[in-house]
Amino acid sequence: MKYKFSITVLLLLVALAAARAQVASHASTLDTKAPTPQNQVTGKPVARVNGVALTDRDLLQEMFAIFPYARQHNGFPKSEEAEIRKGALDMIVFEELVYQEAERRKMTVLPAKLDLAAADLRARFKSPEEYQQFLQTEFKGSRPLLLKKIRRSMLIEALLQAEVQNKSAVSLAEAKAFYDQNPARFETTESFTLQTITILPPAKPAPEQLGNERKRAEEALRQAKATKNAEEFGLLAEKISEDDYRVNMGEHKPADRTQMPPPVLQAVLAMQPGQISDLIQVEQAYTIIRLGAHNPAGKKKFAEVKDALQKELQKKKTNQLRVELDRKLRKSARVELLSEPGVG
User: Fold this and answer.
1) How far apart are alpha carbons 128 and 122 in whole angstroms?
2) Which residues pair with residue 28 across a beta bridge?
3) How many Å apart are CA 147 and CA 337, to the nearest integer?
4) Which of 89, 119, 184, 226 is 20 to 30 A (C-alpha) from 32?
């Protein structure tokens, strides 16, 4: 907890340099033939919050935070770019509102913590020269400007800690109450965990080919029966199976019994975990099954779900608190969203 603020600051600030380098190298989206004005940094405002301008540089930095893979793919996917941009714009406006609220409350940052964050940032660079280049490029060589940026980030985090994180904790009693009030949520149907090896016929098999498929399936069965565990069966599935599950060692997600083909259900009901079936014919395909588990219908115990449930409820509560805080801050603020990054 002690170093959380510095990690956040480092990521934000180092992203500035990375985003700038990315834009300089790739001025387009995934279609590199046509430059995309939305991703070119001009320094012009994309929004104003109580008169404070937020620039396209701030916007692009946040877009990279949302979709870091853009650096690997030479830009943002065209099908997602508008949504990423909207989410980034909403976020930088929200952060500015939070920062201004922190200043209004006269929240402070201890000099020692500010110096520690600055030292952590400097340690991220491979050499003093690289750090100085970053300082010159992003802050005109001014350490006070850098410290101002760090202080802003720390104030944002401090206010969010007070208004969101500290209020979003979910106790074990709250999780248990949710569990008791939503029994259907934790009921499970009878299901089976299994691996398969499937031999598929040609799209339009000739009569003589059907016999060949049977022989191939019998040879696959012989090899499957020789496997000693799930890993060996999975490796064999990767090698000889012809269904889509071969890329996952033949493993399926738990299958509800009501969704299973009758021949398959009949086979697995007669099997014990670890057993391998004989050939099962489903239409023209031959399938071999290794049963991983037979999960009876029932209800998950609270002890089984409490950790995941607490995290889920806390995440939901965190999101609600952030939305409420955003709404509250916007209510008394003047927020102008400009139609294009360069409008100002």
Assistant:
1) 8
2) 35
3) 28
4) 89
Q: Please give the C-alpha separations between residue 83 and each of 27, 76, 90, 147, in angstroms, as whole numbers.
A: 19, 10, 11, 32
How far is it, in rounded angstroms, from Cα 253 to Cα 188?
14
pLDDT tens for residues 293-319? 998 888 989 999 999 999 999 999 999
CATH 3.10.50.40 intervals, the chain? 190-296
pLDDT at position 91 is: 94
Alpha helices by DSSP H, listed for 67-142, are: 78-104, 111-123, 128-139
Token pair listed for 337: 């969203």
Which CATH number is 4-170+317-337 given? Answer: 1.10.4030
User: 289 and 198 in contact (C-beta within 8 Å)?
Assistant: no
Three-class SS state of 77: coil
Structure confidence by residue, pLDDT tens digits, 195-218:
999 998 877 666 666 567 888 899
Identify the CATH number of the domain defined by range 190-296. Answer: 3.10.50.40
Which amino acid type is present at position 182?
N
- The string of pLDDT tens digits covering residues 234-256 is 999 999 999 889 989 999 988 88
What is the distance between the alpha carbons of residues 303 and 3, in angstroms, rounded to a whole number?
A: 32
